[in-house]
Design goal:
The protein is of the alpha+beta class. Helix content is 14%, strand content 36%. A hairpin with a 2-residue loop joins β11 and β12. The relative contact order is 0.19.
Length: 290
């Protein structure tokens, strides 16, 4: 009986230790673990013990930050709470970029500010081998300034998927076999900025920023990057066993596809694929679905 009691206490102690170890290794990442400030450090403030940050835009400056490392394929996500009220003329951007001049690859979320009471617009864009101009815009179906929402980019050999709260809002497929560029050779860092762009951001520049409402604040937390860090093992980026390359992530499932169609039918307000003034001939990538 004494031996059994000792074993129970030992098992309990081991369970407590393992629970603590799991908590310690799974605690939320802090901002400085993975990121560095790239622009105007006085306008980025760490809050919640470094697990969240506040970005500030005023008449003196905006600000920006970037990941310390670059990645070749993976998933990146952040929870963001956007500028409340009158945010016209402001842009909060969250994107991946290869940091190369002439042939850059880039995957963009740009949150375009609004006048109070109007919907927030997300513009997405894809640059592949230096070619961009693939803008799409949707109006969000909720108030993104009221609370945090999760914005994520899945990037693998099959496609790029932009999602909002796990709802796909854009898919860019790998159609290299048809001669269409796809970003797969250059590693990319993760970036974010808050800045003034009232020459185009809100209603094509018709709505200007109201500096009497400044300073403007955006908030970020739950920084999550899972991908092949570069430099790293050469086999990582081509490893078919990386979870983001798995069968479940090579195409949208039925539920995701239904949500994707719902977003595009009900909330899309601009698609470069249908802009005949810019593209009299439909761009080739627009001819293939999800």
């Amino acid at each position: 009986m004494a031996t059994l009691k000792y074993m129970n206490y030992a098992n309990l102690s081991l369970l407590i230790f393992l629970s603590f170890l799991l908590w310690a290794t799974a605690r939320p990442a802090t901002f400085l673990q993975d990121f560095r400030i790239t622009w105007s450090d006085s306008h980025i403030r760490q809050i919640e013990g470094g697990r969240a940050i506040q970005l500030v835009l005023d008449q003196n400056s905006g600000c920006g930050f970037a990941s310390k490392n670059q990645y070749l394929f993976g998933v990146v996500s952040m929870k963001i709470k956007l500028i409340p009220g009158d945010s016209a003329g402001t842009v909060t951007a969250f994107y991946m970029n290869s940091d190369t001049d002439n042939v850059r690859d880039e995957l963009d979320f740009e949150f375009l500010g609004n006048r109070s009471g109007q919907p927030y617009t997300i513009q997405t864009n894809v640059y592949a081998h230096g070619k961009g101009d693939r803008e799409q815009r949707i109006n969000l179906w909720f108030d993104p300034a009221a609370e945090y929402h999760t914005y994520s980019i899945l990037w693998n050999h099959h496609h790029v998927v932009f999602s909002v709260d796990q709802v796909p809002i854009r898919v860019y497929k790998n159609n290299e076999a048809r001669g269409i560029p796809f970003p797969k050779f250059q590693p990319m860092g993760v970036y974010s900025t808050l800045w003034e762009a009232d020459d185009w951001a809100t209603r094509g520049g018709l709505e200007k920023i109201d500096w009497s409402k400044a300073p403007f604040y955006a908030y970020y937390k739950d920084f999550d990057i899972e991908g092949c860090q570069v430099p790293g093992p050469a086999s990582c980026a081509s490893n078919p066993h990386n979870w983001w390359e798995g069968a479940a992530y090579q195409q949208l499932n039925a539920i995701q596809a239904r949500r994707y169609r719902w977003v595009r039918m009900n909330h899309m307000i601009y698609d470069y694929c249908t802009d005949k003034s810019r593209y009299p001939v439909t761009p080739p990538e627009c001819m293939y679905g999800i």
